[in-house]
Protein backbone atom coordinates (compact mmCIF):
# COMPACT_ATOMS: atom_id res chain seq x y z
CA UNK A 1 0.00 0.00 0.00
CA UNK A 2 1.44 3.38 -0.91
CA UNK A 3 1.85 6.18 1.60
CA UNK A 4 -1.02 8.26 0.15
CA UNK A 5 -3.55 5.44 0.49
CA UNK A 6 -2.37 4.72 4.03
CA UNK A 7 -2.75 8.41 4.90
CA UNK A 8 -6.29 8.48 3.54
CA UNK A 9 -7.30 5.38 5.50
CA UNK A 10 -5.73 6.69 8.71
CA UNK A 11 -7.42 10.09 8.33
CA UNK A 12 -10.79 8.40 7.75
CA UNK A 13 -10.31 6.23 10.83
CA UNK A 14 -9.34 9.23 12.94
CA UNK A 15 -12.32 11.23 11.63
CA UNK A 16 -14.64 8.32 12.40
CA UNK A 17 -13.22 7.90 15.92
CA UNK A 18 -13.46 11.65 16.54
CA UNK A 19 -17.04 11.85 15.31
CA UNK A 20 -17.94 8.86 17.53
CA UNK A 21 -16.19 10.49 20.47
CA UNK A 22 -17.83 13.87 19.91
CA UNK A 23 -21.26 12.30 19.53
CA UNK A 24 -21.02 10.41 22.83
CA UNK A 25 -24.00 11.28 24.97
CA UNK A 26 -25.85 13.02 22.15
CA UNK A 27 -29.32 12.06 20.94
CA UNK A 28 -29.18 9.83 17.86
CA UNK A 29 -30.77 11.12 14.66
CA UNK A 30 -34.42 10.11 14.36
CA UNK A 31 -35.05 9.66 18.09
CA UNK A 32 -38.00 11.44 19.76
CA UNK A 33 -37.13 14.94 20.97
CA UNK A 34 -36.11 15.75 24.53
CA UNK A 35 -34.06 18.09 26.69
CA UNK A 36 -30.66 19.14 25.26
CA UNK A 37 -27.84 16.68 25.93
CA UNK A 38 -24.26 17.25 27.06
CA UNK A 39 -21.20 15.58 25.67
CA UNK A 40 -20.64 12.12 27.11
CA UNK A 41 -23.26 12.27 29.86
CA UNK A 42 -26.30 13.06 27.69
CA UNK A 43 -29.10 14.05 30.09
CA UNK A 44 -27.55 12.42 33.16
CA UNK A 45 -27.03 15.83 34.80
CA UNK A 46 -30.76 16.56 34.77
CA UNK A 47 -32.05 13.03 35.23
CA UNK A 48 -34.21 13.12 38.39
CA UNK A 49 -33.23 11.01 41.40
CA UNK A 50 -36.85 10.23 42.27
CA UNK A 51 -40.40 10.94 41.11
CA UNK A 52 -39.34 10.50 37.48
CA UNK A 53 -42.97 10.65 36.35
CA UNK A 54 -43.25 14.31 37.42
CA UNK A 55 -40.19 15.39 35.44
CA UNK A 56 -41.24 13.28 32.44
CA UNK A 57 -44.70 14.92 32.48
CA UNK A 58 -43.13 18.40 32.56
CA UNK A 59 -40.77 17.60 29.67
CA UNK A 60 -43.62 16.17 27.66
CA UNK A 61 -45.37 19.57 27.83
CA UNK A 62 -42.31 21.04 26.09
CA UNK A 63 -41.22 18.26 23.73
CA UNK A 64 -44.44 16.35 22.98
CA UNK A 65 -46.18 13.10 23.87
CA UNK A 66 -43.14 10.97 23.12
CA UNK A 67 -39.82 12.15 24.50
CA UNK A 68 -36.38 10.66 24.69
CA UNK A 69 -33.53 11.03 27.14
CA UNK A 70 -29.98 9.95 26.90
CA UNK A 71 -28.18 8.78 30.03
CA UNK A 72 -24.64 8.15 28.84
CA UNK A 73 -25.12 5.43 26.19
CA UNK A 74 -28.61 4.39 27.38
CA UNK A 75 -31.61 5.71 25.46
CA UNK A 76 -34.81 6.12 27.43
CA UNK A 77 -38.14 6.80 25.70
CA UNK A 78 -41.19 7.97 27.60
CA UNK A 79 -44.73 7.56 26.27
CA UNK A 80 -47.02 10.26 27.60
CA UNK A 81 -50.29 9.60 25.78
CA UNK A 82 -52.68 6.69 25.12
CA UNK A 83 -51.91 6.97 21.38
CA UNK A 84 -48.20 6.59 21.98
CA UNK A 85 -48.84 3.53 24.17
CA UNK A 86 -51.09 2.01 21.53
CA UNK A 87 -48.53 2.52 18.74
CA UNK A 88 -45.51 1.14 20.58
CA UNK A 89 -46.66 -1.08 23.41
CA UNK A 90 -49.91 -2.52 22.05
CA UNK A 91 -49.46 -2.61 18.26
CA UNK A 92 -45.73 -3.36 18.12
CA UNK A 93 -45.78 -5.73 21.04
CA UNK A 94 -43.40 -8.25 19.46
CA UNK A 95 -40.68 -5.60 19.33
CA UNK A 96 -41.49 -3.81 22.58
CA UNK A 97 -42.32 -6.47 25.13
CA UNK A 98 -38.94 -7.29 26.60
CA UNK A 99 -37.98 -6.05 30.02
CA UNK A 100 -34.69 -4.18 30.35
CA UNK A 101 -31.94 -6.42 31.66
CA UNK A 102 -30.75 -5.20 35.02
CA UNK A 103 -27.68 -6.48 36.76
CA UNK A 104 -29.33 -6.18 40.16
CA UNK A 105 -32.32 -8.16 38.86
CA UNK A 106 -29.97 -10.87 37.61
CA UNK A 107 -28.26 -11.03 40.98
CA UNK A 108 -31.59 -11.22 42.82
CA UNK A 109 -33.14 -13.83 40.54
CA UNK A 110 -30.55 -15.39 38.23
CA UNK A 111 -31.24 -17.07 34.88
CA UNK A 112 -34.39 -15.11 34.12
CA UNK A 113 -36.31 -17.41 36.45
CA UNK A 114 -38.79 -14.65 37.38
CA UNK A 115 -41.18 -14.25 34.45
CA UNK A 116 -42.20 -10.71 35.46
CA UNK A 117 -38.61 -9.59 34.98
CA UNK A 118 -37.49 -11.86 32.13
CA UNK A 119 -37.22 -11.38 28.38
CA UNK A 120 -40.21 -12.01 26.15
CA UNK A 121 -38.40 -14.33 23.73
CA UNK A 122 -37.83 -16.68 26.60
CA UNK A 123 -39.77 -19.96 26.39
CA UNK A 124 -40.02 -20.00 30.19
CA UNK A 125 -41.80 -16.63 30.07
CA UNK A 126 -44.35 -17.96 27.60
CA UNK A 127 -45.08 -21.06 29.69
CA UNK A 128 -45.37 -19.14 32.97
CA UNK A 129 -47.43 -16.39 31.40
CA UNK A 130 -49.89 -18.90 29.93
CA UNK A 131 -50.30 -20.59 33.30
CA UNK A 132 -50.74 -17.24 35.11
CA UNK A 133 -53.32 -16.06 32.57
CA UNK A 134 -55.35 -19.24 33.07
CA UNK A 135 -55.22 -18.93 36.86
CA UNK A 136 -56.13 -15.26 37.00
CA UNK A 137 -58.73 -15.22 34.22
CA UNK A 138 -62.03 -13.80 35.47
CA UNK A 139 -63.89 -17.05 34.65
CA UNK A 140 -61.44 -19.07 36.72
CA UNK A 141 -61.60 -16.60 39.61
CA UNK A 142 -65.35 -17.23 39.85
CA UNK A 143 -64.45 -20.60 41.42
CA UNK A 144 -63.07 -18.65 44.37
CA UNK A 145 -66.00 -16.30 44.95
CA UNK A 146 -66.96 -17.93 48.27
CA UNK A 147 -63.40 -17.77 49.52
CA UNK A 148 -63.00 -14.16 48.39
CA UNK A 149 -66.23 -13.27 50.21
CA UNK A 150 -65.14 -15.11 53.35
CA UNK A 151 -61.73 -13.36 53.34
CA UNK A 152 -63.52 -10.02 52.91
CA UNK A 153 -65.67 -10.86 55.93
CA UNK A 154 -62.54 -11.58 57.94
CA UNK A 155 -61.12 -8.24 56.75
CA UNK A 156 -64.17 -6.49 58.21
CA UNK A 157 -63.75 -8.43 61.45
CA UNK A 158 -60.05 -7.50 61.59
CA UNK A 159 -60.85 -3.82 60.98
CA UNK A 160 -63.42 -3.92 63.79
CA UNK A 161 -61.17 -5.64 66.33
CA UNK A 162 -57.81 -4.15 65.41
CA UNK A 163 -58.48 -0.86 63.57
CA UNK A 164 -55.02 0.36 64.58
CA UNK A 165 -53.57 -2.39 62.33
CA UNK A 166 -55.67 -1.41 59.31
CA UNK A 167 -52.64 -1.20 57.03
CA UNK A 168 -51.40 -4.71 57.91
CA UNK A 169 -54.93 -6.12 57.92
CA UNK A 170 -55.13 -5.29 54.23
CA UNK A 171 -51.85 -7.06 53.54
CA UNK A 172 -53.12 -10.10 55.45
CA UNK A 173 -56.25 -10.18 53.32
CA UNK A 174 -54.31 -10.04 50.06
CA UNK A 175 -51.56 -12.50 51.03
CA UNK A 176 -54.11 -14.93 52.47
CA UNK A 177 -56.48 -14.87 49.50
CA UNK A 178 -53.68 -14.94 46.92
CA UNK A 179 -51.95 -17.83 48.66
CA UNK A 180 -55.21 -19.79 48.81
CA UNK A 181 -55.38 -19.75 45.04
CA UNK A 182 -51.64 -20.09 44.43
CA UNK A 183 -50.49 -22.40 47.24
CA UNK A 184 -53.75 -23.78 48.62
CA UNK A 185 -53.15 -22.36 52.10
CA UNK A 186 -54.28 -19.35 54.05
CA UNK A 187 -53.18 -17.08 56.89
CA UNK A 188 -55.69 -16.19 59.61
CA UNK A 189 -53.52 -13.60 61.37
CA UNK A 190 -51.31 -10.66 60.50
CA UNK A 191 -48.67 -12.51 62.53
CA UNK A 192 -49.19 -15.82 60.65
CA UNK A 193 -45.82 -16.92 59.32
CA UNK A 194 -46.52 -16.41 55.60
CA UNK A 195 -47.87 -12.89 56.04
CA UNK A 196 -45.13 -11.84 58.45
CA UNK A 197 -42.38 -13.26 56.24
CA UNK A 198 -43.87 -11.83 53.07
CA UNK A 199 -44.10 -8.41 54.73
CA UNK A 200 -40.45 -8.68 55.75
CA UNK A 201 -39.09 -9.94 52.42
CA UNK A 202 -41.19 -8.17 49.79
CA UNK A 203 -40.34 -4.55 50.71
CA UNK A 204 -36.66 -5.49 50.85
CA UNK A 205 -36.91 -7.13 47.44
CA UNK A 206 -38.47 -3.96 46.01
CA UNK A 207 -35.81 -1.79 47.71
CA UNK A 208 -33.08 -3.98 46.28
CA UNK A 209 -34.58 -3.61 42.78
CA UNK A 210 -34.28 0.13 43.29
CA UNK A 211 -30.56 0.03 44.08
CA UNK A 212 -29.68 0.75 40.44
CA UNK A 213 -31.27 4.20 40.88
CA UNK A 214 -28.50 4.92 43.40
CA UNK A 215 -25.68 2.73 42.10
CA UNK A 216 -25.88 2.99 38.28
CA UNK A 217 -24.49 -0.45 37.72
CA UNK A 218 -26.36 -0.93 34.43
CA UNK A 219 -24.84 2.25 32.99
CA UNK A 220 -21.34 1.50 34.34
CA UNK A 221 -21.01 -2.30 34.45
CA UNK A 222 -17.53 -1.82 35.90
CA UNK A 223 -19.25 -1.05 39.23
CA UNK A 224 -20.38 -4.65 39.30
CA UNK A 225 -16.74 -5.73 39.43
CA UNK A 226 -16.01 -3.94 42.73
CA UNK A 227 -15.43 -6.67 45.34
CA UNK A 228 -18.19 -7.27 47.85
CA UNK A 229 -16.08 -6.19 50.83
CA UNK A 230 -15.98 -2.61 49.46
CA UNK A 231 -19.67 -2.15 48.63
CA UNK A 232 -22.70 -2.53 50.85
CA UNK A 233 -25.20 -3.13 48.06
CA UNK A 234 -23.79 -6.50 47.03
CA UNK A 235 -24.26 -7.88 50.54
CA UNK A 236 -27.76 -6.41 50.63
CA UNK A 237 -28.71 -8.06 47.33
CA UNK A 238 -27.23 -11.40 48.42
CA UNK A 239 -29.15 -11.31 51.67
CA UNK A 240 -32.44 -10.41 49.96
CA UNK A 241 -31.93 -13.19 47.42
CA UNK A 242 -31.45 -15.67 50.26
CA UNK A 243 -34.63 -14.53 52.03
CA UNK A 244 -36.59 -14.52 48.76
CA UNK A 245 -35.53 -18.09 47.93
CA UNK A 246 -36.17 -19.26 51.49
CA UNK A 247 -39.73 -17.89 51.54
CA UNK A 248 -40.87 -19.09 48.13
CA UNK A 249 -38.88 -22.32 48.46
CA UNK A 250 -40.70 -23.09 51.72
CA UNK A 251 -44.11 -22.36 50.17
CA UNK A 252 -43.31 -24.57 47.19
CA UNK A 253 -41.99 -27.28 49.51
CA UNK A 254 -45.24 -27.34 51.48
CA UNK A 255 -47.20 -27.94 48.28
CA UNK A 256 -44.81 -30.74 47.31
CA UNK A 257 -45.18 -32.31 50.75
CA UNK A 258 -48.95 -32.19 50.49
CA UNK A 259 -48.77 -34.03 47.17
CA UNK A 260 -46.46 -36.67 48.62
CA UNK A 261 -48.92 -37.27 51.45
CA UNK A 262 -51.80 -37.41 48.99
CA UNK A 263 -53.66 -34.58 50.70
CA UNK A 264 -53.60 -32.09 47.83
CA UNK A 265 -56.41 -29.54 47.53
CA UNK A 266 -56.08 -28.85 43.80
CA UNK A 267 -54.31 -25.48 44.08
CA UNK A 268 -52.41 -23.82 41.23
CA UNK A 269 -48.90 -24.84 42.31
CA UNK A 270 -49.96 -28.48 42.73
CA UNK A 271 -51.11 -28.40 39.13
CA UNK A 272 -47.85 -26.78 38.04
CA UNK A 273 -45.81 -29.44 39.84
CA UNK A 274 -47.87 -32.29 38.40
CA UNK A 275 -48.01 -30.95 34.83
CA UNK A 276 -44.70 -29.05 34.88
CA UNK A 277 -42.96 -31.29 32.33
CA UNK A 278 -45.82 -30.94 29.88
CA UNK A 279 -46.07 -27.18 30.37
CA UNK A 280 -42.33 -26.54 30.21
CA UNK A 281 -42.18 -25.33 33.82
CA UNK A 282 -40.11 -28.09 35.34
CA UNK A 283 -37.08 -26.19 36.60
CA UNK A 284 -37.28 -25.74 40.41
CA UNK A 285 -36.15 -22.09 40.26
CA UNK A 286 -38.82 -21.29 37.69
CA UNK A 287 -41.50 -23.01 39.78
CA UNK A 288 -40.34 -21.25 42.91
CA UNK A 289 -40.44 -17.87 41.18
CA UNK A 290 -43.73 -18.51 39.42
CA UNK A 291 -45.51 -18.71 42.77
CA UNK A 292 -43.35 -15.89 44.10
CA UNK A 293 -44.04 -13.39 41.33
CA UNK A 294 -47.78 -14.01 41.57
CA UNK A 295 -47.78 -13.42 45.31
CA UNK A 296 -45.59 -10.34 44.85
CA UNK A 297 -47.82 -9.04 42.06
CA UNK A 298 -50.92 -9.48 44.20
CA UNK A 299 -49.53 -7.09 46.82
CA UNK A 300 -50.19 -4.15 44.49
CA UNK A 301 -53.86 -4.70 45.38
CA UNK A 302 -53.00 -3.90 49.02
CA UNK A 303 -51.38 -0.65 47.95
CA UNK A 304 -54.39 0.34 45.84
CA UNK A 305 -56.75 -0.43 48.73
CA UNK A 306 -54.63 1.51 51.23
CA UNK A 307 -54.64 4.44 48.81
CA UNK A 308 -58.44 4.25 48.48
CA UNK A 309 -58.78 4.40 52.27
CA UNK A 310 -56.50 7.45 52.44
CA UNK A 311 -58.75 9.09 49.82
CA UNK A 312 -61.86 8.26 51.92
CA UNK A 313 -60.32 10.11 54.84
CA UNK A 314 -59.09 13.08 52.82
CA UNK A 315 -62.36 13.52 50.88
CA UNK A 316 -65.18 13.03 53.44
CA UNK A 317 -67.94 14.43 51.21
CA UNK A 318 -67.21 11.83 48.57
CA UNK A 319 -67.05 9.13 51.29
CA UNK A 320 -70.52 10.16 52.45
CA UNK A 321 -71.88 9.86 48.90
CA UNK A 322 -70.39 6.38 48.54
CA UNK A 323 -71.90 5.31 51.86
CA UNK A 324 -75.35 6.65 50.96
CA UNK A 325 -75.26 4.73 47.68
CA UNK A 326 -74.21 1.48 49.38
CA UNK A 327 -76.77 1.91 52.15
CA UNK A 328 -79.52 2.38 49.59
CA UNK A 329 -78.56 -0.63 47.47
CA UNK A 330 -77.42 -3.06 50.18
CA UNK A 331 -79.16 -2.03 53.43
CA UNK A 332 -77.73 -2.93 56.84
CA UNK A 333 -78.65 -6.59 57.18
CA UNK A 334 -75.74 -7.93 55.14
CA UNK A 335 -72.43 -6.70 53.73
CA UNK A 336 -72.23 -5.95 49.99
CA UNK A 337 -71.84 -8.88 47.64
CA UNK A 338 -69.93 -9.09 44.35
CA UNK A 339 -73.28 -9.03 42.50
CA UNK A 340 -74.03 -5.60 44.01
CA UNK A 341 -71.04 -3.97 42.30
CA UNK A 342 -72.78 -3.21 38.96
CA UNK A 343 -75.41 -1.28 40.96
CA UNK A 344 -72.84 0.92 42.72
CA UNK A 345 -71.69 3.42 40.05
CA UNK A 346 -70.50 6.10 42.47
CA UNK A 347 -68.49 3.56 44.45
CA UNK A 348 -66.81 2.41 41.24
CA UNK A 349 -66.18 6.04 40.27
CA UNK A 350 -64.58 6.62 43.68
CA UNK A 351 -62.20 3.71 43.10
CA UNK A 352 -61.36 4.95 39.57
CA UNK A 353 -60.68 8.44 40.87
CA UNK A 354 -58.41 7.17 43.67
CA UNK A 355 -56.43 5.20 41.09
CA UNK A 356 -56.29 8.22 38.79
CA UNK A 357 -55.15 10.68 41.45
CA UNK A 358 -52.52 8.35 42.88
CA UNK A 359 -51.72 5.54 40.44
CA UNK A 360 -49.69 3.03 42.42
CA UNK A 361 -47.41 2.42 39.45
CA UNK A 362 -46.60 5.92 38.14
CA UNK A 363 -44.45 4.50 35.32
CA UNK A 364 -46.00 0.99 35.07
CA UNK A 365 -43.11 -1.46 34.54
CA UNK A 366 -40.41 -0.65 31.99
CA UNK A 367 -40.30 -2.36 28.60
CA UNK A 368 -37.28 -2.68 26.33
CA UNK A 369 -37.10 -2.70 22.52
CA UNK A 370 -35.63 -5.91 21.10
CA UNK A 371 -35.36 -4.50 17.55
CA UNK A 372 -35.42 -1.10 15.84
CA UNK A 373 -38.87 0.22 14.99
CA UNK A 374 -39.76 3.37 13.08
CA UNK A 375 -43.18 4.82 13.82
CA UNK A 376 -44.34 7.97 12.01
CA UNK A 377 -40.72 8.68 11.12
CA UNK A 378 -39.54 8.37 14.73
CA UNK A 379 -36.94 5.81 15.73
CA UNK A 380 -37.41 3.45 18.69
CA UNK A 381 -34.02 1.77 18.70
CA UNK A 382 -33.19 -1.74 19.86
CA UNK A 383 -32.07 -1.66 23.50
CA UNK A 384 -33.96 1.53 24.38
CA UNK A 385 -35.93 1.42 27.63
CA UNK A 386 -39.59 2.41 27.28
CA UNK A 387 -41.63 3.92 30.09
CA UNK A 388 -45.40 4.49 30.03
CA UNK A 389 -46.04 7.60 32.10
CA UNK A 390 -49.27 6.44 33.73
CA UNK A 391 -49.21 9.28 36.24
CA UNK A 392 -48.68 11.78 33.40
CA UNK A 393 -51.62 10.39 31.39
CA UNK A 394 -53.88 10.63 34.42
CA UNK A 395 -52.95 14.24 35.17
CA UNK A 396 -52.96 15.57 31.61
CA UNK A 397 -54.78 18.91 31.74
CA UNK A 398 -55.80 18.59 28.10
CA UNK A 399 -58.16 15.80 29.11
CA UNK A 400 -58.74 16.03 32.86
CA UNK A 401 -60.36 19.05 34.40
CA UNK A 402 -58.62 20.09 37.66
CA UNK A 403 -56.45 16.96 37.50
CA UNK A 404 -55.07 17.47 41.02
CA UNK A 405 -58.54 17.55 42.56
CA UNK A 406 -60.48 14.53 43.73
CA UNK A 407 -63.73 14.37 41.75
CA UNK A 408 -65.24 10.90 41.33
CA UNK A 409 -68.10 12.55 39.41
CA UNK A 410 -65.82 12.89 36.40
CA UNK A 411 -66.14 9.11 35.92
CA UNK A 412 -69.93 9.35 35.94
CA UNK A 413 -70.12 11.88 33.12
CA UNK A 414 -67.44 10.12 31.06
CA UNK A 415 -66.36 6.50 31.47
CA UNK A 416 -62.68 7.55 31.30
CA UNK A 417 -63.16 10.62 33.50
CA UNK A 418 -62.30 12.89 30.57
CA UNK A 419 -63.61 16.48 30.48
CA UNK A 420 -66.74 17.12 28.41
CA UNK A 421 -65.14 19.76 26.19
CA UNK A 422 -62.08 17.66 25.28
CA UNK A 423 -61.46 16.03 21.97
CA UNK A 424 -60.29 12.83 23.62
CA UNK A 425 -57.29 10.80 22.53
CA UNK A 426 -58.91 8.11 20.32
CA UNK A 427 -56.57 5.46 21.69
CA UNK A 428 -57.70 5.85 25.29
CA UNK A 429 -58.75 2.49 26.68
CA UNK A 430 -59.71 1.18 30.11
CA UNK A 431 -57.05 -0.12 32.47
CA UNK A 432 -54.03 1.81 31.25
CA UNK A 433 -52.59 1.49 34.72
CA UNK A 434 -52.23 -2.25 34.12
CA UNK A 435 -49.76 -1.63 31.27
CA UNK A 436 -50.14 -3.06 27.80
CA UNK A 437 -49.04 -5.31 24.97
CA UNK A 438 -48.03 -8.85 25.76
CA UNK A 439 -46.87 -7.91 29.22
CA UNK A 440 -50.19 -6.41 30.31
CA UNK A 441 -50.84 -7.29 33.93
CA UNK A 442 -52.35 -10.80 34.19
CA UNK A 443 -53.66 -9.96 37.68
CA UNK A 444 -56.12 -7.30 36.50
CA UNK A 445 -59.32 -9.35 37.16
CA UNK A 446 -58.06 -10.34 40.62
CA UNK A 447 -57.25 -6.72 41.48
CA UNK A 448 -60.48 -5.27 40.12
CA UNK A 449 -62.63 -7.73 42.00
CA UNK A 450 -60.70 -7.33 45.25
CA UNK A 451 -60.78 -3.53 45.04
CA UNK A 452 -64.50 -3.41 44.22
CA UNK A 453 -65.81 -5.76 46.90
CA UNK A 454 -63.43 -4.70 49.67
CA UNK A 455 -63.95 -0.98 49.15
CA UNK A 456 -67.73 -1.41 49.15
CA UNK A 457 -67.64 -3.69 52.21
CA UNK A 458 -65.33 -1.47 54.24
CA UNK A 459 -67.41 1.65 53.54
CA UNK A 460 -70.59 -0.28 54.32
CA UNK A 461 -69.16 -1.25 57.72
CA UNK A 462 -67.11 1.77 58.87
CA UNK A 463 -66.72 5.47 58.64
CA UNK A 464 -63.14 6.60 58.09
CA UNK A 465 -61.89 9.86 59.51
CA UNK A 466 -58.57 11.46 60.42
CA UNK A 467 -56.81 10.51 63.62
CA UNK A 468 -57.05 13.22 66.25
CA UNK A 469 -53.87 13.84 68.21
CA UNK A 470 -54.91 13.49 71.88
CA UNK A 471 -52.46 16.18 73.03
CA UNK A 472 -53.02 18.93 70.48
CA UNK A 473 -56.56 17.90 69.52
CA UNK A 474 -55.55 18.43 65.89
CA UNK A 475 -56.67 16.13 63.09
CA UNK A 476 -53.81 14.43 61.25
CA UNK A 477 -54.67 13.77 57.60
CA UNK A 478 -52.83 11.20 55.48
CA UNK A 479 -50.20 13.04 53.46
CA UNK A 480 -51.34 12.52 49.88
CA UNK A 481 -48.13 14.00 48.51
CA UNK A 482 -45.79 11.76 50.47
CA UNK A 483 -45.73 8.35 48.85
CA UNK A 484 -42.84 5.88 48.79
CA UNK A 485 -40.40 6.30 45.92
CA UNK A 486 -39.72 3.37 43.61
CA UNK A 487 -41.53 1.22 41.08
CA UNK A 488 -44.58 1.13 43.38
CA UNK A 489 -45.74 4.33 45.05
CA UNK A 490 -47.42 3.30 48.31
CA UNK A 491 -48.99 5.58 50.88
CA UNK A 492 -47.21 5.68 54.22
CA UNK A 493 -48.89 3.84 57.13
CA UNK A 494 -50.92 6.40 59.03
CA UNK A 495 -53.19 6.36 62.09
CA UNK A 496 -56.90 6.71 61.31
CA UNK A 497 -60.18 6.85 63.15
CA UNK A 498 -62.19 3.80 62.00
CA UNK A 499 -65.69 3.66 63.51
CA UNK A 500 -68.37 1.01 62.91
CA UNK A 501 -71.51 2.49 61.33
CA UNK A 502 -73.82 0.99 64.01
CA UNK A 503 -74.21 -1.91 66.45
CA UNK A 504 -76.30 -3.68 63.81
CA UNK A 505 -73.30 -3.53 61.42
CA UNK A 506 -71.07 -4.98 64.16
CA UNK A 507 -73.52 -7.87 64.75
CA UNK A 508 -73.53 -8.67 61.04
CA UNK A 509 -69.70 -8.56 60.90
CA UNK A 510 -69.46 -11.00 63.86
CA UNK A 511 -72.03 -13.34 62.35
CA UNK A 512 -70.35 -13.37 58.92
CA UNK A 513 -66.98 -14.05 60.52
CA UNK A 514 -68.37 -17.04 62.42
CA UNK A 515 -69.61 -18.48 59.15
CA UNK A 516 -66.18 -18.46 57.48
CA UNK A 517 -64.84 -21.53 59.32
CA UNK A 518 -66.16 -24.28 57.06
CA UNK A 519 -65.15 -22.43 53.90
CA UNK A 520 -61.57 -21.95 55.06
CA UNK A 521 -61.03 -25.41 56.57
CA UNK A 522 -59.53 -27.12 53.44
CA UNK A 523 -56.85 -24.41 53.30
CA UNK A 524 -55.86 -24.53 56.95
CA UNK A 525 -53.91 -27.81 57.18
CA UNK A 526 -50.57 -26.18 57.83
CA UNK A 527 -51.56 -23.66 60.50
CA UNK A 528 -49.15 -22.98 63.35
CA UNK A 529 -50.21 -23.55 66.97
CA UNK A 530 -50.83 -19.81 67.36
CA UNK A 531 -53.02 -19.76 64.26
CA UNK A 532 -55.01 -22.73 65.54
CA UNK A 533 -55.43 -21.07 68.94
CA UNK A 534 -56.68 -17.95 67.19
CA UNK A 535 -59.27 -19.97 65.28
CA UNK A 536 -60.31 -21.87 68.40
CA UNK A 537 -60.70 -18.64 70.34
CA UNK A 538 -62.47 -16.49 67.78
CA UNK A 539 -64.05 -18.69 65.20
CA UNK A 540 -66.70 -21.31 65.53
CA UNK A 541 -65.17 -24.18 63.55
CA UNK A 542 -68.12 -26.52 64.08
C1 LIG B 1 -54.20 -2.64 41.22
C2 LIG B 1 -53.44 -3.68 41.07
C3 LIG B 1 -52.40 -3.89 40.01
C4 LIG B 1 -51.79 -3.01 39.18
C5 LIG B 1 -52.02 -1.52 39.06
C6 LIG B 1 -50.85 -3.77 38.37
C7 LIG B 1 -50.07 -3.22 37.38
C8 LIG B 1 -49.18 -3.95 36.60
C9 LIG B 1 -48.39 -3.39 35.53
C10 LIG B 1 -48.39 -1.96 35.06
C11 LIG B 1 -47.65 -4.39 35.03
C12 LIG B 1 -46.66 -4.29 33.87
C13 LIG B 1 -47.42 -4.34 32.56
C14 LIG B 1 -46.55 -4.00 31.40
O1 LIG B 1 -45.34 -4.29 31.45
O2 LIG B 1 -47.05 -3.44 30.42
C15 LIG B 1 -47.95 -5.59 35.76
C16 LIG B 1 -47.37 -6.82 35.52
C17 LIG B 1 -47.63 -7.92 36.27
N1 LIG B 1 -48.59 -8.06 37.25
FE1 LIG B 1 -49.81 -6.61 37.93
N2 LIG B 1 -50.91 -5.08 38.73
C18 LIG B 1 -51.84 -5.21 39.72
C19 LIG B 1 -52.25 -6.39 40.32
C20 LIG B 1 -51.69 -7.62 40.09
C21 LIG B 1 -52.13 -8.84 40.72
C22 LIG B 1 -53.32 -8.95 41.67
C23 LIG B 1 -51.30 -9.84 40.27
C24 LIG B 1 -51.30 -11.31 40.58
C25 LIG B 1 -52.17 -11.93 41.34
C26 LIG B 1 -50.35 -9.24 39.35
C27 LIG B 1 -49.35 -9.91 38.69
C28 LIG B 1 -48.54 -9.35 37.73
C29 LIG B 1 -47.50 -10.09 37.02
C30 LIG B 1 -47.14 -11.55 37.24
C31 LIG B 1 -46.93 -9.19 36.11
C32 LIG B 1 -45.79 -9.48 35.14
C33 LIG B 1 -46.34 -9.82 33.77
C34 LIG B 1 -45.26 -10.03 32.72
O3 LIG B 1 -44.18 -9.45 32.85
O4 LIG B 1 -45.52 -10.78 31.78
N3 LIG B 1 -50.63 -7.89 39.27
N4 LIG B 1 -48.90 -5.30 36.73
UniProtKB/TrEMBL annotation:
Gene3D superfamilies referenced in this protein's UniProt entry, alphabetically: Cytochrome P450
TM annotation in the entry: none
Protein's name according to its UniProt entry: Cytochrome P450
GO cellular component labels: membrane
This protein's UniProt keywords: Glycoprotein, Heme, Iron, Membrane, Metal-binding, Monooxygenase, Oxidoreductase, Transmembrane, Transmembrane helix
Highest taxon of the lineage: Eukaryota
Topology class, membrane: Single-pass membrane protein
Binding locations of heme: 441
Amino acid sequence: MDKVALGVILSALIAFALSKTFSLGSRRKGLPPGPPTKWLIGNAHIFPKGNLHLAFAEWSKVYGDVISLQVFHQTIIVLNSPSAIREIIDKRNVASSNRPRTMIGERLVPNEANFGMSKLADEKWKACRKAANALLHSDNLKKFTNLQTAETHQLLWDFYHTPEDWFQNIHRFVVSFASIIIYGKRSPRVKSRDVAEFMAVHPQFMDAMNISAIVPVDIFPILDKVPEIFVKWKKQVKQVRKMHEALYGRLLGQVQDRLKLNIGNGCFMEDMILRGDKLGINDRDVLLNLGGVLLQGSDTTSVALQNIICCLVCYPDAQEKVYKEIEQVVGVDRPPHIDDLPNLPYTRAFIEESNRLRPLDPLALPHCMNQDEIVNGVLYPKGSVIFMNIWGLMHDERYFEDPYEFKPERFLSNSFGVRQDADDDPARRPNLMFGGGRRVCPGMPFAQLALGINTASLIWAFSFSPYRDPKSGKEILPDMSHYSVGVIASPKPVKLQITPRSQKHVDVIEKCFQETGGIFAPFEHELSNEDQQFNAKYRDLM
